[in-house]
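Our working data are protein records whose layout never changes between entries. The record below serves as our worked example for the rest of this section:
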Amino acid sequence: MGEEPNDARPEPADRIPGEDASKQNQNQSPQQGQGQNPAPPDPRVAPSPETPPWAPVRPAAASGTPAPPPPPERPPATPTLAFGPPPQASGQPSGQQSGPPPGESSGAVPVGAGAAAPDYSYGYPRSGPATAPGYGPPPGYGPPGYGPPGYGPPPGHGAQPPAQPPGPANPAQAAAIGLLNLSGLGLGYVLLRNWIGAVLCWLATAALLVVALPADVDGVPVGVLVGYGVFLLAAAADGFRRGLRATLRIGAAFRRLALPLALVLLAVPAGGSLAYGAARDEAKEQALLARLTTADERVKSGQGLLFERAEPLYRLALATYQDLGTKHAGSRAGKLVPARLDAYYEQLSAPYAKKDYCKAVAPLTHLRGLSGAVDKDLLGTRPAKTDEPLAESLYECGTGALGVQAADPPAEKSLNALLDTFPESDHATRVEPAVRAAVKTRSTAVDGATPCEAVVELRTIRTTVGALPGADFDGAARETSTAIEKGDFACGTSQFRSKDFDDAVTTMTQFAKDHPSSPKAAHARSIAIAAEIADEEAEAGKALPPAKAPGGSRMVMVVSNDGPGSVELLYTGPTTGRITLNACATCTKYPNPIFEGSKKIKACTGPSSKYPKATLLLPAGNYHFLQKRAGTGTSSAGDTKTSKAKIEPGYSYTNCLYVTSGF
């Protein structure tokens, strides 16, 4: 490789004043670079790099002394730029410099040679110790235009700092960056100056917060949590990979704190999870309290309603109470359920407290039956406390409904429920005496001013007694029947005296059918006949017919039927009765005298055998007659006619029954 003259190189500005090249070399011995080791470098200045083989060399001395041959070629060492005066060799006096001997031209010095490499810091090469292989900056560094081909800035461009090569693997640093990314804040990417990754982390965390907040009972969907977790793991792995050999632009103190800080920042997602869990728990508490409030409102809305209408609301409220008290017993709402149940029992027991026993039966029965529908541990002894109030309510409601025809519920329903549910209770043993007392009270009322009302109540009591179980009520049943018989007769006579003849007829006719063996049956029939006549002729109802016919002589009255169709004759007076005459086959209606010139009707003037007849034996006295003719082709059913007659002793009488036409 040839030498290039560098006579045209300008003098460096900081060259030592007053010295020239000849003076710098005059104190150097020719043997210094040949037989002695080079002096150690001055610690005050940077060591001079070995002169690369392609570096320019200083021209030969003016004396013309030829340059020594170059040493064996070695691998080039990295040039180093040094500032300050050149180092002095050990053992040399101050002011002397190492270099080639005077009179020798300086040529290219192979890199790695034992001789000191020239220093190009000030324009001309200066001698100095060689740089050990492996030290110094990598090839390509140094002033522009120096170094082997391929290094340095591209032609035509200014000097640019080259890309820094990857450093050695640093697992602790990589772990710190990965953990910083795992916190969800993207701080690992921030240290790496990877702003895209940091922004992605921030966006993912912000999206999670938007979905999760405000916290509700359902929480964050599982898919969102899984996706966010996968993203954090991917960010942590990517941060570990990028930070393993990265050179961070942070101080050493902060570098030592990076890993502890990353571990501490892991508390951010953990703390956030705990805070979100607490917020979600509070949301659950509020939701449970809202359910409790809804149940309370349902119970409150049932006040004032019939239990049958309010029961669906009560059932819904109870279902809520049971769910809160069993599945969420530890919640604030669950801890309030026992107090709500106490209030529930108190509200439904309010009719009993007001002594409205019939109204209290349904809610008390409901409360007592909750032991089979609601958790027993939750209810405790509350259902058992309703036994006595329920038994008392059934007794009072049942006995209060005795004799009340329109009672709701009827007496037999309440009393049967009492006897079936609480057969051994004191209230159950009081039922039979209570029934007898009710019968006696109504039986006494029969003799009063309202016998008909009393007999209706007695009939209702008889229905109740017939529905009660066991033989304990047989005596009460007999007493009831006797009282009803007495009451029916008293009711019929009361109706007759009150001129309510239609009802009297019905009552007494029914009495005779219901009590045919009663000693009052015949009298009841007489009263019914007299009431039927009095319904057509009020005068016949001035007094009740006698229970027994008077004694003494009786007069004969022969009654004949001179008209079409059969006829029923009713009479009342000292005695009362009823007879029926068969139809006359050849008899017809007589013209009305108005249309015949007031011509007198001569009925029953034919042969006596022609007319159906009946004979009456009547005590003397005034009688009222009512004939009721059956319907025929020439007459309609219900044709009636009344008449009066006075029966005197010693006479016989005839009575001809006929029909006149209106045209």
Q: What stands out?
A: The two ends are 176 Å apart (CA to CA). DSSP finds 21 helices and seven strands in the chain.
